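Technical note accompanying the year-one report. For the benefit of new consortium partners, we illustrate the data format agreed upon in the data management plan: each record pairs a sequence with a C-alpha cell string. No post-processing was applied to the example shown here.
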Amino acid sequence: MTKRACLLFASMLVGCGGPAEPASPQSGNAEARATAAAAEAPGTTSAEPTTAIVSATPSSEPTAMPSSEASIPGEVEYPFHGLEKIPDDCKEPSVVLTTAPTKEGWDYDWIWTRQAMYANQQFKLVDWPSKADKAMQVRLDMYEIPGGFALLGVCKDGETCNKLAAMYKATVPTCNPKLHCGEVPMKGPPRRSKLIPETGAWLPASDDVIGQCARIGVCLKMKKQAVGNPGVECQSSPKKFRVDCASKATCGDVVQCLNKP
C-alpha cells in the first residue's frame, strides 16, 4: 500500500484514504475536537512512548539548517485557500500541522514536515525548551492523541502561524493544517519532536525513498512545477522519478535535475 503524506480526520475520516489513522486531538473546544491534521507518510516504526518529557539544552538562537536554501532572498508567498486564518496579532497562536499513528512512536522523524521546513527557511526553527519570541520563529511540539501523535507548530504571532499553515498546505497538499488562537487544543504535556535531525543531515539518505519523494514533492510544489501530489506519486512509483535529485542542495537544483532530458 502506498504510504500517504497525510490523512484528514474529524469525528470520522473525511479526506484521503490510506493506512490506519489516529483520532482527532482532544480539547475543551468543540471545534478543536472536530479537527486534526493528517498522518504523515510512515517511516521506520519506532519504540513505544515513555513518560519522560524530552528537552534540549536551552538556546535563544533558532536551529541552523546547513543549506544554501537559506540564501534564497525574500519570502515565498503561499495562498491561504481552504484555511481558516487566525488574527495576525493573536498572542497565543498555534497550528496542528499533521498527525502520525501510534506505531511510529515518539521517535518519529516527521519526514514530510522536515523537508517542508528545510525548503522554506524563511521560518526559523526554535529548539526545545526555548520559545518562539520573534516573527517567523516556530517551535514544533509533539503531543500524544488518541490513536497517535500530533505535531503542533507554536509561533510568537498569528501572522507567522498563518504563513506556516499556508506553506504546509501548499507543499504537502494532502494535509489540512488547523490554526488555533488561544490555549493549545491538546491535552497532556508536549514533548520535543525528532524532526530536527541530530546528525545535522536534513537531506534524505540515498536509500530513504520516502524521504527522497517527500523532498521532490515539496520542491515541485514550492516551485509550482506540478499539480496534485507529486510526492505521493513518487512513493507509489519511485522508478518514474529521478529520486537521486533529492540530494541537491536547493529546490531550484532539485527541479532542474528532475527536468533534465
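Partners are asked to follow this layout when depositing records. The chain has two domains: 1-43+80-200, 209-258.
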